[in-house]
Amino acid sequence: MKLDTEDTIMQNISPKVQNQFAMLQQVQQQLQTVLSQKAQYEMAVREAKRAEEEIKDAADDTPMFMSVGTVMVQKKKEYVNLKLTEKVESLELRIKSLEKQETMLQGKFEQLQSQIKAALEGKNAPNAA
């Protein structure tokens, strides 16, 4: 089969398959967004844990500074450690939520992909869930 332009190919495909293909692209974009956010949160967790390690061995009276907006303020070690721990816990919850989204989107992506493949091969594709 000679390949024409993408537009010509899409014109020869049923509207149902065209719709499934559009949904597939949308799911792929959502999956990429989720993966990007997950990577950012994982990096923030690593940074916070590294900061926890750095202050762990410091004396309790060691001056510590935290960024609050555009200002650095001095805080007690105990407070800084507590805030870092809370940050790690919060980020890890967000990562778990994103992992659930990732799994769901991956499943939806694979389902749409198989439906499109079956339709293009001339088979009856299962109805979308």
Topology:
Blueprint: H1 6-11, H2 15-56, E1 64-68, E2 71-75, H3 77-120
Antiparallel strand pairs: 1-2
Helix pairs in contact: 2-3
User: CATH topology, anyone?
Assistant: Helix Hairpins
Q: Choose one word for the global shape.
A: rod-shaped
Major β-sheet strand ordering? 1-2
Supply the helix-strand structural class. mainly alpha
Distance between the termini: 32 Å
The total tally of domains equals: 1
- What is the residue-mean pLDDT, rounded to a whole number? 88
- Overall helicity: over 70%
- State which percent range the strand residues make up: 5-15%
What's the total helix number?
3
Radius of gyration: 24 Å
What is the H/E order?
HHEEH
CATH architecture: Orthogonal Bundle
User: How many runs of DSSP E, i.e. beta strands?
Assistant: 2
The main pleated sheet reads as:
2 strands, antiparallel
The first-level CATH class is given as Mainly Alpha
Low-confidence stretches: none
Oligomer: single chain
Produce a short descriptive summary:
By secondary structure, the protein is mostly helical. It has 3 helices and 2 strands, in the order H-H-E-E-H.
Explain what this protein looks like in three dimensions.
The structure is a single chain. The protein starts with 5 loop residues before the first helix and ends in a 9-residue tail after the last helix. The chain has one domain (6-120): Helix Hairpins. The radius of gyration is 24 Å and the shape is rod-shaped. It has helices at 6-11, 15-56, 77-120, and strands at residues 64-68, 71-75. The chain is built from three helices and two strands. The longest helix is centred in the C-terminal third of the chain and has 44 residues, at 77-120. It has a two-stranded antiparallel sheet with strand order 1-2. Helices cover 71% and strands 8% of the residues. With 129 residues, the chain is mostly helical.
